């Protein structure tokens, strides 16, 4: 009998700290060649698009497929979010679906967790650093949560084109994290932080790459199509470039594709996949002056790792609704 877990239950079971560890193990499995990660499949239908993201992590015993639907008319026509997600988790011994869970909150956390893993491995280790968050939405909050898990921060800045959204973010996250969070007046102020996270829907760079200080680390999260980018070519040129997947970076990431097209970098500028650094195959940060960039496209192994973690915790806590199909 499959176990049903709604958003509230997933949120009660999934912590950022545990998700960071699970996602790191998933990247290690990917680098070791153990993970199975087919390309995502997309199907356009009725004015929207559905994406199917399967993966298998033998070490985590997690076999899952996330179904993501993006239908732009949902809010107007159906009072539903533009993007919805559901995760199917299968029993690895029998293949039967053992859990169906809401995927929206899990996706937000696992995306933040990937930045947590990258920040832990690539950002400078000295305490008292500052964080700069671009985008005052759900993912911006998850980015700051993840960075705070792995680094001791003295202050955080948030920039959003909507000043009221940035002010609300600053108030909420200051209280939640017991950390001074400031709503920035300009992108440039935020771009001077030690650890920068971009989590916006902007198709154009959200700050000038020349504004980034030596020694900074940047997590690029928001852009995921070939024609859109949050990070300009100058920053990509200056930085040691690490991605979640080399293939995804050169197929989907405008941050990298456009810099390549402009002649600012060659394909050899891509330094490593995150998993290669985790297993010691490639070096991470080599000096405190180096700028590092982690480009996150979002991989199904992150969903499988987080879903497996949630399912195990749900069984242990005895929560969820079991149904007979």
Task: Jot down its keywords.
325 residues; alpha/beta; ornithine cyclodeaminase, domain 1; Rossmann fold; 8-stranded parallel sheet; 7-stranded mixed sheet; 15 strands; 38% helix; globular
Structural summary, described in words:
There is one protein chain. By secondary structure, the protein is an alpha/beta fold. It folds into two domains: 3-107 and 301-322, 2-Layer Sandwich (ornithine cyclodeaminase, domain 1), CATH 3.30.1780; 126-298, NAD(P)-binding Rossmann-like Domain (Rossmann fold), CATH 3.40.50. The chain is 38% helix and 25% strand. It is built from twelve helices and 15 strands. It has helices at 7-13, 16-31, 74-78, 104-122, 138-150, 163-177, 187-191, 233-238, 246-252, 254-261, 274-278, 300-317, and strands at residues 3-5, 41-45, 48-57, 62-71, 83-90, 97-102, 129-134, 153-159, 181-183, 195-198, 217-220, 240-243, 270-273, 292-295, 321-322. The strands form two sheets. The protein has an eight-stranded parallel β-sheet with strand order 9-8-7-10-11-14-12-13. α9 (246-252) crosses α10. The chain is globular. The N and C termini lie close together (7 Å). The model has no long low-confidence stretch (mean pLDDT 96).
